[in-house]
Design goal:
The protein is α/β, with parallel strands linked by helices. Helix content is about 35%, strand content about 15%. It has 2 domains: about 1-240, Rossmann fold (3-Layer(aba) Sandwich); about 245-270, no CATH class. It has helices at about 10-25, 40-55, 80-85, 110-120, 160-165, 185-190, 205-210, 245-260; strands at about 1-5, 30-35, 60-65, 65-70, 100, 130, 155, 180, 190-195, 230-235. Helix 2 (about 40-55) links the parallel strand 2 (about 30-35) and strand 3. The structure holds 2-amino-2-deoxy-6-O-phosphono-alpha-D-glucopyranose. 2-amino-2-deoxy-6-O-phosphono-alpha-D-glucopyranose binds near residues 35, 66 and 140.
Length: about 270
């Protein structure tokens, strides 16, 4: 895992957007896995700005969202489809047929989950999976205890998640109890992962994910088994990391290597 600690959530958003933009420029027809929640909002805003001001082109990009509440119509203000349209898709040139969000309004749950997996496969798999993290360590809606090999399916939300997400609804009772979520196995198949974490409410789950054991009780910890993961956090979310000095040193060395400053690394000195 590569860990980058930025000063605050604005810096996380800008860096994440820059990474995604560079990725798209490198592969204009890439397949992106996208998260919802409050954490990625700044990244989406910055991507919209890059599209508007710098011509970042999404015309060939394909997107798959991680999850959707069950029982909310796509036009419901708290559905993730609505969130995506409002906060990102309506403001860039992604073709509507190229953006996918699981169908939470279906009654054929199993069929719809299988179709979603098939659509990801048909698109060639996820090139870059962007993720947030729940305060209980979940990724997408894979709650603690989820199979680490799981595929797209229905999950019951944990009480902690219902509490956390109640802020978007009129009351806790209005938060759907079920969601469709891509599985942990699905996420692990992405070629690259970028996980964003901001704010002190995420500090313990970030620490458990990065420095704790790999366990289904902290679903995000499975990312330790993925070979290309970047964890991008702000100071508050990174504050419980024990080895932060080392992560910062790794970044310093990387920058010197990238700049060809080998002498500063003690390479080539007589
Ligand atoms: C939600 C979503 C996750 C998201 C997480 C964190 O429940 N299903 O995909 O990463 O919770 O949300 P937030 O960024 O609002 O803290």
């Amino acid at each position: 895992m590569r860990i980058i600690i930025e000063p605050d959530h604005v810096a996380v958003a800008c860096r994440a957007a820059r990474l995604v933009a560079d990725f798209i420029r490198g592969k204009p027809s890439c397949v992106l896995g996208l998260p919802t929640g409050s954490t990625p909002l700044g990244m989406y805003r910055e991507l919209i700005r890059l599209h508007r001001d710098e011509g970042l082109d999404f015309s060939e990009v394909i997107t798959f969202n991680l999850d959707e509440y069950i029982g909310l119509a796509p036009g419901h203000r708290q559905s993730y489809r609505y969130y995506m349209q409002e906060n990102f898709l309506d403001h860039v040139n992604i073709r509507s047929q190229n953006s996918h969000v699981p169908d939470g309004f279906t009654r054929d749950f199993e069929g719809s989950c299988d179709l979603y997996e098939q659509a990801i496969r048909d698109a060639g798999g996820i090139d870059l999976q962007i993720l947030g993290i729940g305060s209980d360590g979940h990724i997408a809606f894979n709650e603690p205890g989820s199979s680490l090999a799981s595929r797209t399916r229905i999950k019951a939300l944990a009480s902690e998640t219902i509490r956390d997400n109640a802020r978007f609804f009129e009351s806790e009772a209005d938060v759907p109890r079920l969601a469709i979520t891509v599985g942990i196995g699905t996420i692990l198949e992405a070629r690259r992962c970028l996980l964003l974490g901001t704010g002190s409410a995420k500090a313990s789950s970030i620490c458990a994910m990065v420095e704790g054991p790999v366990t289904a009780q902290v679903p995000a910890s499975v990312l330790q088994l993925h070979r290309d993961v970047l964890v991008l956090v702000d100071q508050a979310a990174g504050e419980q990391l024990q080895r932060r000095a080392y992560y910062e040193e790794v970044e310093r060395v990387r920058q010197l290597l990238d700049a060809g400053e080998l002498r500063q690394l003690g390479i080539g000195k007589p």
